[in-house]
């Protein structure tokens, strides 16, 4: 059964200037938090782009709307179903953090559905692989301390948004872990833009992604945002401007 991802279709009020844009948010965020509050939706709809805005499983207003597997392969199938149902041709795809990992795989497995790929805050490693679910669940259930720095950091991110369902996020982490990320296994063939803050510790392996793209013959560009980190790169106007210019190239 294909996952029923929460979807908002936001139509432009201007003359359509290019393919629709599929936005994929990061972990412990949502379509609204990641893209609407940071004004990506307005920026793109004002520029003549229709937007497909999804909430990943475990996220958004109805985090448990999907039963069954939440593994990345199932999310890819759900995204493909959305694109084929709502658009006559390929879309441009923009992902951030976990959304970048999913966007890389979506574009690699569905080149006929993707025109351009933009990845924000990306890395060559699995962003959730190192999370210690045992410690995370024990912390929530009984207040036990977390002695793993990475797990503590992710927990802080997850708990920063009061509306997050932490147990649902744990279920997504478990599903993500079931299919480890290996960007070299299948590489996108569509033009790709990699964007990260130069203070983003999670994007230090971005150059490996670029090497994979170059070796595969995929056209690619990189933008480093001065003074930005993983948390605030997505709010950068420079990021938005570069993204729109890249999609028009």
TrEMBL record:
Keywords: Hydrolase. PANTHER family: MONOACYLGLYCEROL LIPASE (PTHR43798), MONOACYLGLYCEROL LIPASE ABHD6 (PTHR43798:SF5). GO terms for molecular function: monoacylglycerol lipase activity. One of its GO terms (biological process) is acylglycerol catabolic process. This is Alpha/beta hydrolase. Residues 21-231 form the AB hydrolase-1 domain. GO terms for cellular component: membrane. The lineage of its organism: Bacteria, Bacillati, Actinomycetota, Actinomycetes, Micrococcales. It holds the Pfam family Abhydrolase_6. SUPFAM superfamilies: alpha/beta-Hydrolases.
């Amino acid at each position: 059964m294909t996952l029923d991802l929460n979807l908002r279709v936001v139509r432009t009020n201007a003359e359509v200037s290019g393919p629709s844009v599929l936005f994929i948010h990061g972990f412990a965020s949502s379509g609204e938090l990641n893209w609407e509050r940071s004004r990506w939706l307005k920026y793109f709809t004002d520029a003549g782009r229709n937007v497909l805005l999804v909430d990943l499983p475990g996220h958004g207003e109805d985090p448990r709307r999907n039963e069954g597997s939440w593994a990345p392969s199932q999310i890819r199938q759900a995204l493909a179903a959305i694109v084929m149902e709502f658009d006559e041709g390929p879309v441009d795809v923009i992902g951030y953090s976990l959304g970048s990992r999913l966007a890389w795989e979506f574009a690699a497995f569905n080149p006929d559905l993707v025109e351009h790929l933009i990845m924000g805050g990306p890395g060559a490693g699995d962003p959730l692989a190192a999370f210690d679910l045992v410690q995370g669940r024990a912390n929530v259930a009984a207040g036990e301390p977390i002695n793993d720095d990475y797990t503590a950091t992710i927990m802080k991110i997850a708990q920063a948004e009061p509306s997050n369902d932490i147990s649902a996020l744990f279920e997504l982490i478990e599903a993500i872990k079931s299919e480890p990320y290996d960007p070299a296994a299948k590489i996108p063939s569509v033009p790709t833009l990699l964007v990260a803050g130069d203070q983003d510790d999670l994007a230090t392996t971005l150059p490996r992604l670029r090497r994979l793209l170059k070796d595969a013959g995929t056209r690619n560009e990189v933008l480093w945002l001065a003074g930005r980190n993983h948390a605030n790169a997505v709010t950068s106007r420079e990021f938005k401007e570069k993204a729109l210019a890249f999609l028009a190239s």
